[in-house]
């Protein structure tokens, strides 16, 4: 099969790397939720060779991710493992970091809250979670492009849609996290960094 390819990943991987390198440390395990094409995993695993990067996604995306991983031939990428939020639990190993890009607006809000609950249950104190993607602020779109994107998401699936920054922060807080930093990113995206507090 031809490898799946996302132009958006090629555009955003550099800016995301510039943020992640402020936080990620060698010798740790990172769980990627919704690895998509597998491009992010290959790029970041090469940039962070001392980090174990575990890929996951829903079943229909696993073959494409495997194509990217096989071609990259990097020892620190694991998976892909099947993970559908609301159905599957995280892989059993302990994780220091969780990274997910452009997933919260695809999942329903109910599924997003299920993810937050899983994060609170499975991550230990000091672990970090990274959410990349578009977010509304105070219930308002931050750009016309995001408004148009949100409309297209809802036409495809009424349960999808750009999430409100405040709703995500409050929900994560209720499951034991604090917002460490809200990074402004290109193309009206953000990268939110959360830290797991003591249980």
Give the topology:
Blueprint: H1 7-20, E1 29-32, H2 39-47, E2 52-57, H3 62-72, E3 77-82, E4 97-101, H4 109-122, E5 128-133, E6 135-136, H5 144-156, E7 163-164, H6 165-174, E8 177-185, E9 189-196
Parallel strand pairs: 1-2, 1-4, 2-3, 4-5, 6-7
Antiparallel strand pairs: 5-9, 8-9
Explain what the structure shows.
- This protein has 199 residues and is of the alpha/beta class.
- It has one domain (7-196): Vaccinia Virus protein VP39 (Rossmann fold), CATH 3.40.50.150.
- It is 36% helix and 24% strand.
- It has six helices and nine strands; from the N terminus they run αβαβαββαββαβαββ.
- It has helices at residues 7-20, 39-47, 62-72, 109-122, 144-156, 165-174; strands spanning 29-32, 52-57, 77-82, 97-101, 128-133, 135-136, 163-164, 177-185, 189-196.
- It has a seven-stranded mixed beta sheet with strand order 3-2-1-4-5-9-8, with helices on both faces. A two-stranded parallel sheet has the order 6-7.
- α1 packs parallel to α2.
- It is globular and about 45 Å long.
- The model has no long low-confidence stretch (mean pLDDT 96).
């Amino acid at each position: 099969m031809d490898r799946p390819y996302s132009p958006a990943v090629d555009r955003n991987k550099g800016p995301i790397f510039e943020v992640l390198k402020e936080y990620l440390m060698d010798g740790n395990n990172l769980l990627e939720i919704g690895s998509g094409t597998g491009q992010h995993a290959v790029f970041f695993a090469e940039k962070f060779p001392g980090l174990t990067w575990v890929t996951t996604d829903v079943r229909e995306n696993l073959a494409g991710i495997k194509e990217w991983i096989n071609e990259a031939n990097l020892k620190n990428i694991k998976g892909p493992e099947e993970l559908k939020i609301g159905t599957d639990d995280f892989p059993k190993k302990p994780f220091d970091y969780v990274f997910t890009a452009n997933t919260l607006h695809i999942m329903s809000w109910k599924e997003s809250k299920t993810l937050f609950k899983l994060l609170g249950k499975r991550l230990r104190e000091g672990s970090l979670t990274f959410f990349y993607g578009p977010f509304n602020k105070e219930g308002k779109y931050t750009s016309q492009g995001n408004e148009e994107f949100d409309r297209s998401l809802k036409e495809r699936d009424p349960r999808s849609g750009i999430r409100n920054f405040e709703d995500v922060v409050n929900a994560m807080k209720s499951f034991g996290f604090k917002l460490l930093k809200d990074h402004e990113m290109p193309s009206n995206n953000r990268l939110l960094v959360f830290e797991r507090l003591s249980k």
